[in-house]
Amino acid sequence: MAETISMPKLGFDMAEGTLVRWVKKIGETISKGDVLAEIETDKATVEVESSASGVVRKLLVDEGAVVPVNHPIAIVGTAEEEISEQRTESSGEVAGDGEKQPAVSDLPSAVNVQQSAISNPQSSIPNPQSSILRASPLAKKIARERSLDMSNIHGTGPGGRIVRRDVEVALAGGTNPQPATAISQLPVADETIPLGKLRQAIARRMAESKNSIPHFYVTHEYKADALVALRSQYNQIVPENEKLSVNDFIVKAVALALRQYPNLNATLNGNSVLRHGQVNIGIAVSVEGGLLTIVCREADQKPLRQISGEVKAMAARVRAGKVKPEDIEGSTFSISNMGMYEVENFAAIINPPEAAILAVGSARQVPVVAGADGRQPELGIGWRMKATISVDHRVSDGVEAAKFMQALAVYLEEPLRMIL
Which of 177, 190, 203, 311 has the most crowded CB, counting CB atoms within 10 A? Predict the structure, then answer.
């Protein structure tokens, strides 16, 4: 029986997505879990997997169309079964301008040929934009629609690839940042840079968070000597691709501590608090134009090696623009780690609808006072790391947050607890 594939909802605030590219075409065989299309959300370019196996019978929206969540985008069925016109019409096909129009398969053949030529650089029909520079499909489409010459655009994407933001800057009359060659060549005029979709989403959500959530903050300094030593010993005996980062230990420690303080692994739901059964840790990753949160699910149940491998794989997909929906949705608590930038301490804004976020600074060697149990105190050098938790005061209070930070110290300062 034919099954309708809909635009997925990735995150609680997603309302729509742009269908960037069809990976499968009409008439092609597809298996459940195969990538059907690529969509662009406010956060990233995401691969949409088919929820059914069979043959792609209908593509209900055009490439470049902005589609509301849960809106049908394709029909998968058997090669022989009949797809009723009523089913196709009721799906409400969305064109690039947001208006309903016939499904791609019902368009005149000349239009289909032209679209195929645009998306396929091997087509015999020439596409002047496709052979000029390396550019994303969406960047090419916008440039083509606005008759923009891309030859003078400097790409800021991976490997110098021209991405959507570069085209938007050019259309706004701005210039992309060129590689620095000499001080005299630096721009001196004012420059207006339009916000990309990701930065707009970040601005909207963070403003909403700060305006509607009463934040409070608790900072704790952790002894990191044992963590640094254990990580160093471990990484000396494993292959390069299996080495652990300090952040891997932090993810595991936070997940275990949240089991003791489930009120911080929660969401405010009206006059009640929803304590999540799973501990899904969101990890902020720097991407072009902003930050994206990837999600390590049930981190309290996984060994450090598995956490490390999953986080590496998700981060690689994010930076390659090949995100899976499950990579970025469903976090219950977030971590923002700026330790790699030599940041001593900072506070992060809560990622709605979560109740808290942990901001982590660098593990640093600093002067410390050593000596206990009646021994004479001595000045020495030790590893220390500061972290600050931001908490929704409607859900929790300072005492609970402080106890959580103490529980976190047990794991970070005695890291063998996370391995044994």
Answer: 311
